[in-house]
Amino acid sequence: xxxxxxxxxxxxxxxDAVAPSSSPLAGETLTLQVLDVGQGSAALLTLPGGxxxxxxxGSKNTGAPEALAELGVQRLDLVVATHPHEDHxxxxxxxxxxxxxxxxxxxxxxxxxxxxxxxxxxxxTAIKEKGLRVHAPAQGEVLYDENGVVIRSxxxxxxxxxxxxxxxxxxxxxYGEISLLLPGDAGPDPQxxxxxxxDVSADAYLVAHHGSADYAEGWIExxxxxxxxxSCGEDNSYGHPGEDALSRFRDVGAKVxxxxxxxxxxxxxxxxxxxxxxxxxxxxxxxxxxVTAER
Length: 295
Fold this sequence. Notes:
Elements: E1 30-34, E2 43-46, E3 52-55, H1 64-70, E4 75-80, H2 86-89, H3 92-98, E5 100-105, H4 118-129, E6 134-135, E7 142-146, E8 149-153, E9 171-175, E10 178-182, H5 188-197, E11 204-206, H6 219-223, E12 227-230, H7 243-251, E13 253-257, E14 264-268, E15 270-273, H8 274-277, E16 280-284, E17 289-293
Helix pairs in contact: 3-4
C-alpha cells in the first residue's frame, strides 16, 4: 500500500521563506558523497547530528549497497528515489533490505507512466516488507528540517509530463549559507517550472540527467554553481556529459566562497565527473565548501 503526498503548498520564489527551525550546529558539517555507480546515480548525504539520506542507488550490481556497507551505513533516515528508472533504483531494493530505513520518498506518477518492470515491483516489495509507506512530496514541501538543514522538493507533481524523467523529484538542500541542488533526471519542462517558482541558485549542483545537453534555456545560468558534480559512466553510449553543458559550466559565473576573503566573487564553475574522478565528496560547514575525489 502506497501513501501519496499531501496538497501542494503555495509557491514562493524566495528559498529563505522556509527558514530552518534551528541554526547550524557549531563544528558540525554536512557531507554529500556522489558514489561511483557507472551510468547511473547514487548520492549519500550525511547531515549534521549524524542522520543520513540516500538519493537514488544506481543500477543493479553497480556497487551502491557495497559502498554503503564500506562506509558503515546501517541506517538511512530518509531514502529518496528521484524517479523509477533502473539506473536510479536498480540497487535500491537491496539497500532497503540491508539498512534500517526511516522514510521513503518517490514522485507520484500518472498511471500511463507507472513502470511495470521487475525492478520497480521489487522495490515496492522491499518497501512493504520493511513496513514502510511511500510519500510523494508536494511542491515546496519540506522533507527535513533539523540542525540548520532544510531539504525541500521544488518539483511540481501536477506537471503534465509525458516521460518518467520529467517526473523526477528536484531537491534543494540548504545548510547555513550553502545550498545544493539535486534534480534527478528532470528535463527542460520541469526545470523551467522550477525556475518560474523558485530561486534555484546553488553553490553545488548534482547535474541533471548525467550531464545531458537537454536542459532549459537559462537553467545553468540560474543555478550558477561553484561546483558541478556529474554522475556518469565511462564511455557511455549516451554521450553524457554533453559538450554543450560542459561548455556552459566552464563559462558560467558562479558563486564561490573563499577562505582568504569575505563575501562572494565571480569565478568559473569546477566540474567533477565520476567517470574520470571516481566517487566525489563535498563537505560544508554551512559557510564554506570543499570537494575532493578518488582520483
